[in-house]
Write a structure and sequence with these properties.
- Helix content is 42%, strand content 19%.
- The chain is built from 14 helices and eleven strands.
- A six-stranded mixed sheet has the order 3-8-7-4-5-6, sandwiched between helices. Strands 2-1-9-10-11 form a five-stranded parallel sheet.
């Protein structure tokens, strides 16, 4: 029997296809460092390879904030005249675009009225819904600085769009039932990228009355594969090629083809069943952060990943990896 001690002596590269969190130590680095694998002479080594390149599109947000500020009813509560009953964020990129729009507002003060959209937001009181803990943390920073009367919901307890949609149905309907008449239920604003799933709007707008919630989508950024990703992932795979065991964690469908090609597991874009040699699969393993990317890899390339994290978090990824390895060792 091959033991995990023999397989995992030394470092175990955890190649994360994402940017490392800016401004602080990434949660994946912290978690894997504080939760080493069972062999005492081995450790996880997180390595980051950015896949995505984001381009913000804050013009729609600036227009929204401008309309909010242009309302000259100074004595009216900002919450009552704000078009939406709350905001939905499903990625840190959306939070960053929103924060960028607020920075632009700071540079364009309304000197005549001595009033800015930021001052109106200080008194705005609506829920801010976030998918997953990382998005929630980013959003809490914006909320505390610019929107202290708002509150963040979701986060760790809503790690997927499906879970957040269920939470919103319960939370927002309860809020509306206590504050407004049913016919006054405002729509929610969904801030997202050009490529996104419709699970949240579809779930909220297809719910039966009186639970149905209208959602308006605003595209605030676009995503594409980074031009340097193919080169960077090839270099990282080369530098970790001597590891007895390594894992690659995929966070989104973007970059899936480049990854398989760098591994030598895909020769042509049209090739959908270029499965790796058995020897490759004994040392290099693939995990996805959730089912969307897992299904994409299977549908597009005929490739079955080794692990799909039950929860999109460092804990979920590590749990999936260790359960897989324990099962593999037992065979």
């Amino acid at each position: 029997m091959v033991t995990i001690e023999n397989e995992a002596k030394g470092s175990i590269p955890i190649i994360l296809l994402k940017n490392s969190s800016a401004g602080h130590v990434d949660l994946y680095t912290t978690h894997f460092a504080s939760n080493p694998p069972s062999p005492p002479n081995s450790h996880y080594e997180p390595l980051y390879v950015p896949v995505l390149e984001h381009t913000s599109n804050i013009e729609p947000l600036l227009s929204l904030l401008s309309r909010f500020n242009d309302d000259r009813v100074l004595d009216q509560d900002p919450t009552s005249r704000f078009t939406y009953g709350g905001l939905i964020f499903t990625s840190q990129r959306a939070v960053e675009a929103f924060a960028s729009s607020l920075d632009c507002c700071r540079l364009n003060d309304d000197q005549e009225l001595n009033r800015t959209p930021l001052e109106q937001l200080q008194r705005l009181a609506v829920p801010l819904y976030a998918v997953g803990p990382a998005t929630a943390r980013s959003l809490e920073g914006v909320q505390k600085t610019h929107m202290p009367c708002c509150w963040v919901r979701g986060g760790k307890e809503a790690g997927t769009g499906e879970l957040l949609a269920e939470l919103i149905l319960r939370d927002y309907n309860t809020l509306c039932n206590t504050q407004t008449a049913p016919h006054e239920k405002k729509p929610l604003l969904f801030l997202t990228g050009a490529q996104h799933r419709e699970i949240i709007p579809n779930t909220l707008m297809s719910a039966p009355d009186p639970q149905r919630i209208n959602v308006q989508t605003m595209i605030v950024y676009a995503t594409s594969e980074s031009p340097s990703f193919a080169t960077n992932i090839t270099h990282t795979l080369l530098t970790t090629s001597t590891a007895r065991l390594r894992w690659i964690i995929i966070f989104s469908p973007t970059g899936g083809e480049s990854l398989l090609r760098a591994l030598g597991w895909l020769s042509h874009p049209s090739e959908t069943n270029s499965l790796p040699h058995q020897a490759d699969r004994k040392t290099t393993f693939i995990a996805t952060i959730g089912p969307t990317t897992r299904d994409y890899m299977k549908t597009t390339f005929g490739f079955s990943v080794d692990v799909c994290a039950e929860t999109p978090s460092p804990e979920g990824v590590r749990k999936g990896i260790e359960e897989f390895m324990q099962t593999r060792v037992a065979k």
